[in-house]
Amino acid sequence: MPEKDKDKISRRDFISNTIRGVCLLGLGGTLGLVATRTQAGDTVWQIDPNKCIGCGRCADHCVLEISAVKCVHNFAMCGYCKLCTGYFEPQPNALNTGAENQLCPTGAIRRSFVEHPYYEYEIDEELCVGCGKCVVGCNAFGNGSLFLQIRHDVCVNCNECAISVVCPSGAFKRVNASKPYILKGEEGE
Amino acid sequence: MKSSKLSKIISVTLTSISVLIIALLIYITFFGRDAENPGGVFSYNIDKYRKTDPKLIKFNETGSIDTGFLSVSAVTTDLKDQIYVAGDKAVRIFDSAGNLLSEFQLSDSANCMSVSEDDMIYLGIGDHVEVYNMDGKLLNTWKTAGEMSILTSVDAYGDDIFVADAGGRVVLRYDRSGKLIKRIAEPDEYNNIPGLVVPSPHVDLAVARDGLLRVVNPGNHRIEAYTFDGYLEFSWGEPSMTIEGFSGCCNPVNFAIMPNGRFVTCEQGLTRVKIYTEAGEFESVVAGVESFDMKEDMPIPDGRSESGSMVLDVAVDSIGRVLVLDPVQKSVRIFTEINTQESIKEEEI
After folding, report:
1. Closest CB from A117, A133, A143 relative to B219
2. Beta-carbon separation of A141 and B268 below 8 A
3. Which of the two ends of chain A, N or C, has the fewest CB atoms closer than 10 A to its terminal CB?
């Protein structure tokens, strides 16, 4: 081989180097994907209650038959209203537990007397479908102690949460799995 | 021949059905479900209460005063119809035409304010009252009303200063020096006083022209009349989303008393300003929900929660103009009764 041709790369070397490069790229990509997945495993989906507008999409866009999104109640914030706008229809016939007076379409909120004129409201998560109707009612007039959260004993933590895709307010975000809930009034703690 | 025609009809029908099914599937896949709310019984809808019957609106918006504040919290007037607005950590004083007369700084943001006949300005700041003169000089700082206190209303009436403490669920009657004379509106079974129900920090009060103190009991949706000694005389108001009542969990949030004794009330949730007679009968609307509505594509501004709720404060002047403090526009919006406008025009003619 002439001296000047020694610096030139042969066709065989070129192909060999290219294949090696593609393999390295593939390996890097695979490692990156694995790293991303590992990271996703340490995080879970959650709803930022300060961004949630209670649009109702959580109820029917979750991949589960009954949504993993449930209403939760911050008792420390609650006004224990006699006329709770998260519990009662906007214009109830009477302020009692009659089904016709209840706002929740599945009857998932329980009302119990505390002392005059205060009442306590509890969520039955088995019945709650995460429609957020009560959340809107509470926010419209009250102090927003009812809000939506993803319950992680139910959620399957999809890589791409189907609800997050359609959430109009961008309230869905990944949070550290060690602190999986965003509770109203305790954000800074 | 017949068989061929029949098979052709069947073939066309089946093809049409297939096309329809495919079209339906495509629609459901791409348009039918995405970005739709469940609707129906799963949606909270109070739209019908957001519409005000135009026949009930007896006031026109005739002007506004830009306060220049980043946030506003209270409005009041004095005997000269000067308009006082508390916002940020200051008070600005405007003449009745809206011209800025003076301004002074406060130690903190004031929730409420009242001007006495001798031109002293009493401000509820957090858990205590501060007293200023017209030059903005701090004359007195009263001791805290209580550990849980959130002062939401103050009214200077003669030698008495009445203060509403939403945190303590009580009305405090002080003398001019800040000495506590009487606790009013606390639960008292013997005197048939149910006590204040305060789900959110809004309790307003004012002395009416009959000499009785009016106090809002927001969780019970009514305005209660007390003697200065703390006896409950009567009350009026009822919960209702309809225009006649007070909506939601806790309303009205603020009120003012007109020169002829009528009440102007402000509600949150269904943000509306209404007039009631001295006896508490609904009379008319100053400004309906539409006057404070927000366009759907408008970003949520300060002074308003995501639900669209906002808390208005209100004052009146000697000619019956209703001055509504709008926390979104940061302005005092002036509403004039249509009858008053007509009488002014007649006088001009």
Report:
1. A117
2. yes
3. C
Q: pLDDT tens digits, residue range A100-112? A: 999 999 999 999 9
Per-residue confidence at B344, pLDDT binned at 50, 70, 90?
Answer: low
Q: Can you tell me the mean pLDDT for B274-295?
A: 91
Q: What is the pLDDT of residue A39?
A: 52
pLDDT score of A9 more than 80:
no
The alpha-carbon gap from B309 to the nearest alpha carbon of chain A, in Å, equals 6
Nearest to B309 among A129, A140, A166 (CB): A140
Is this complex's ipTM strictly greater than 0.85?
no
Q: Do A55 and B240 touch (CB under 8 A)?
A: no
Cross-chain residue pair A57–B38, CB shorter than 8 Å: yes
3-state secondary structure chain A: CCHHHCCCCCHHHHHHHHHHHHHHHHHHHHHHHHHHHHHHHCEEEEECCCCCCCCCHHHHHCCCCCCCEEEEECCCCCCCCCCCCCCECCCCCCCCCCHHHECCCCCCEEEEEEECCEEEEEECCCCCCCCCHHHHHHHHHCCCCEEEEECCCCCCCCCCCHHHHHCCCCCEEEEECCCCCCCCCCCCC
For residue B102 the two structure tokens come to 């003076």
Cβ pair B155, B169 in contact under 8 A: no
Residue in A with minimal Cα distance to B253:
A141
Distance CA B307, CA B198 (A): 20
Contact A79 B200 (CB under 8 A): yes
Q: Which residue has the higher pLDDT, B5 or A99?
A: A99
